[in-house]
Amino acid sequence: MGKRGKLKVLILSRLHPLLVGYRCLKGRQLCSHLYQQQNKIINRPFKQGTNNKTMTKQIWGNLPVNDINQTIDFYNKLGFKVDENHFDGNHIASIAVGESKFVICFFPKAPFKVAINGEVADTTQGNEVIFTLSAESQAEVDEWAAKVKGIGGKVFAEPKAFQGMYGCGFADPDGHKFNVLFMG
Predict the structure, then answer these.
(1) Fewer Cβ close by (within 10 Å): the C or N end of the chain?
(2) By three-state DSSP, how is residue 7 classified?
(3) Helix (H, G, I), strand (E, B) or coil at 53
(4) Which residues pair with 132 in a beta bridge?
(5) How much is the pLDDT for 37?
(6) pLDDT score for 18
(7) Rounded to whole angstroms, how far apart are CA atoms 169 and 75?
């Protein structure tokens, strides 16, 4: 297979991972080549323009809260390690979620409004974002729902199967929503 053919298979394999498995059955050499090329693409930082500077190294979410102490208590009871800090004289908190350590920071509404130069979304009327937490099993999804209810949180979507997945949804005291999904 020529260079152009390998590139075509590589692009298709990124769009449909099953193609890699199919091509691997056809020949070990191509499989090895695709694996190496895929890793080069995955491990390459995203570049902008011609200056070769990495656009970003990290991403995190910032959410406004009414009562920082209530937020800290809620997430501690869910089993998260809550880090507390002070920023510009305000008491703030954050949690790191999952293996990638995605950070969600919680700010009092006043400094949050200044940072976004606008109004804070009313989570009783709608949502600005929903975070999804992965689960290892249906039982783990059920445990999340029970734990949230047990600490006074709101489960807005009871655990159920849908579209080949099993999940539930809950909201923290400020109405920020989370899904817990088992995709098995």
Answers:
(1) C
(2) helix
(3) coil
(4) 179
(5) 39
(6) 30
(7) 15
Sheet with 82-87: list strands edge to edge. 60-65, 102-108, 90-97, 82-87
User: Parallel, antiparallel, or unpaired: how do β-strands 102-108 and 60-65 relate?
Assistant: parallel
Neighbours of 168 (CB within 10 A): 22
> Where is pLDDT greater, at 95 or 41?
95
30, 23 Cβ separation under 8 angstroms: yes
Mean pLDDT of the chain: 77
The pLDDT tens digits for 51-89 are 555 566 778 999 999 999 999 999 999 999 999 988 777
**Cross-strand pairs, 178:** 131, 170
Name residue, tokens 């990495």.
54
pLDDT of residue 87: 72
State how far the alpha carbon of 159 is from the alpha carbons of 78, 109, 140, 154, 167, in Å: 17, 31, 10, 13, 5
Which residue in the block uniquely carries the two structure tokens 């290892």? 136
Confirm whether pTM is higher than 0.70. no
